[in-house]
Amino acid sequence: MNPLTERQKLILGLIVQDYVESAQPVGSKRLVDHYGLDVSSATVRNEMAELTDTGFLRQPFTSAGRVPTEEAFRFFVGELMHRQELPSSLKHTISHQFYQARHEVGQWMRLAASVLATQAKAASLITLPQTQQARFKHLELIVTTGKHVLMVLVLESGQVIQQMLVLKEAFPQERLSSTAEHLNNILRGQAASEMPAPPQEMGTLASEIFLLVKAEMERLGSGFGEVFHDGWTNVLAEPEFSEGDAAQRALRVLEERPLLEDLLNQVMNDSQIGGVQVLIGGEGRWEHLNDFSLVLARYGSANAASGYLGVLGPIRMSYGRAVSTVDYVAGLLSDMVSESMGGTEARE
Amino acid sequence: MNPLTERQKLILGLIVQDYVESAQPVGSKRLVDHYGLDVSSATVRNEMAELTDTGFLRQPFTSAGRVPTEEAFRFFVGELMHRQELPSSLKHTISHQFYQARHEVGQWMRLAASVLATQAKAASLITLPQTQQARFKHLELIVTTGKHVLMVLVLESGQVIQQMLVLKEAFPQERLSSTAEHLNNILRGQAASEMPAPPQEMGTLASEIFLLVKAEMERLGSGFGEVFHDGWTNVLAEPEFSEGDAAQRALRVLEERPLLEDLLNQVMNDSQIGGVQVLIGGEGRWEHLNDFSLVLARYGSANAASGYLGVLGPIRMSYGRAVSTVDYVAGLLSDMVSESMGGTEARE
DNA sequence: TTTAGCACTCTCAATACGAGAGTGCTAAAA
DNA sequence: TTTTAGCACTCTCGTATTGAGAGTGCTAAA
């Protein structure tokens, strides 16, 4: 209830720090010995008793050391933690790697997943950058052989969708090109929701393609598409998951798509690009995350495409490192998005 | 040494079957009771003692039941197993789902991973279909805004590569289209290895794009690209992985790319499309797979693109189900590949 | 060759016990 | 009033012990 004294904050911070490193309950004596406190262990014990009453610490059993509660981690993240920025030499290396991967979105994603996982020593998740509302930009139809036609659909956000179509009959490339050109003129700048039914006078070929384009843009609007990830072995290596079903529960976040979509929508629904959200434990809402924490951010640019990224680790994770890593990578990806899709903001 | 008698084969088969279901060592009495053998448990014990000498069974400790060795599973898969085909109603449902996903390769992959994981109750892995040698088919350059240009590169295998380029100066669409057309004429049908250096007389823009195309096609040639997967929770749910580091070792197959590439290259190097390879235990060569088995197949069409797919589960897995599932899905994907890239075989 | 019978072996679960760690409390010191 | 030393107390964890039970291997008879 009462605000914590400075000394209590110090002790709480040290307990969190020690527990994060050791995964062991922390005792009063250990605290005094290792961190050179200028009070005795008895004094620490008194403070610890108080912190236990306040709900920040708990004892696994009568005479073990103390373990921080989820509440303590939330307090730590909110008020005690200081970021552990990546060394700038490392930042240079990383941004150089991103520069080399600049051409292909899939490569950014894999790289970002790998960097997040390695630096935060946790599992990482990233969704593809997507627009709120997909808008048509350009359509290209390319004959491959006979009835097989490759449809390449470009959205204003820069997303590209490719589909292989098998038509009922073969058409020459010129016919397909002119059809594509025709549709380009009709559809440019439109969202799926604004598209009418194909006009009566439109040819069979054109209206078939029209409907495919519309259907595909509608499909794009739902869900996050592919989710990239890395570093699950980091999580499985943590002692708290060496037995029991916790690890399995966490993997469900990856494999049961609705779970992840629900989670991101609820946690990030009002978050701006630039901030980092920390979810500690299931927060009573997500049982399968009961022993895990998530550090999440949104990246991209507000009026073009944006996506989510984050790391998942044990509650006992190094938040200082995780938050600054997530923040840094989110910034990098935001730069990548606005650079490579640079034109799109000009629509304003 | 001596070939097994029919009765020994029967008993070995039953032990494997029972152990797969129960995950418990199998005793002689249990065998007689549950499977209605018309011999006594003492007789079974004698046979079991012999099978133990031969190396097909082992006892976890002096007086537990018997557990099949890896050798036994290999024998089982080779000679005793009968496939457990999926019910045909299920096959219909599945092939219908594939039909609906026919337009986009990523969707096939996700669907196939999901079907494999669900039906074989194991983790699934699939690589994208790729050609041995990427051949240029078509290039398209699309202005997005100002200096930002989208490059769409189509290969004869049907693969499409998209890249966002930022040029040094802005060009009008017509200029880019004619450059693309020019390159299309020069490069059609060529593999990266056959491409010369860009001719001197070629313009700066054209040769810049030329080099990008070449570099990208070379990059494509190495590695499997993205690997789709599903069903790791199935594996983590197995009792043998509830503790220990086995689960972590298995996930490394996914997260350490060279491991997977090495594995697929060695196991599948001479395999034809149509066959199923079974890898039981690490086979002494892959330590991290020591407690796991893999059922692998190649799909695609020999002269167009092909890829690998398979499931990973405990050694104690239901091979009958896994083999027929992998085989069935491989067949489906092969059909998808040859249908959607149908034209390509015509090159012959 | 098969089978009944039986002694034997080894695991697993339950129990007991001591060492050790860390606490909470009390009373003295600052 | 706050801090500290001292100490009894509590509880876990590792080790040792024990008994029940499961399943075997062997022997001798069918």
Largest interface (CB < 8 Å) = A-B, 51 and 51 residues
Query: Can you give the mean pLDDT of chain A?
Result: 91
User: So what's the oligomer here?
Assistant: homodimer
Low-confidence stretches of chain A at least 5 residues in length (pLDDT < 50)?
343-348
* Strand segment count of chain A: 10
Strand order of the largest sheet of chain A: 7-3-10-9-8
Distance between the termini of chain A: 49 Å
- Let me know the largest β-sheet of chain A: 5 strands, antiparallel
N-to-C order of helices and strands of chain A: HHHEEHHHEEEEHHEHHHEEEH
What's the tally of helices of chain A?
12
In helices, the fraction of residues of chain A equals 40-55%
Global outline of chain A: elongated
Rg calc of chain A: 26 Å
Report what the structure shows.
The structure is a homodimer of 348-residue chains. Chain A is an alpha+beta fold. In chain A, 47% of the residues lie in helices and 18% in strands. Chain A has 12 helices and 10 strands. Chain A has helices at 6-22, 28-35, 41-54, 70-80, 88-100, 105-120, 173-187, 204-221, 232-237, 246-255, 257-268, 319-340, and strands at residues 57-58, 67-68, 123-127, 136-145, 148-155, 160-166, 227-230, 276-280, 292-300, 306-314. In chain A, strands 7-3-10-9-8 form a 5-stranded antiparallel beta sheet, with helices on both faces. In chain A, strands 4-5-6 form a 3-stranded antiparallel beta sheet, with helices on one face. In chain A, strands 1-2 form a two-stranded antiparallel sheet. The radius of gyration of chain A is 26 Å and the shape is elongated. Residues 343-348 of chain A have low confidence and may be disordered. The interface between A and B is large, with 51 and 51 residues. Chain A binds a DNA duplex (30 and 30 nucleotides) through residues 25, 27-30, 39-43, 45-46, 48-49, 59-65.
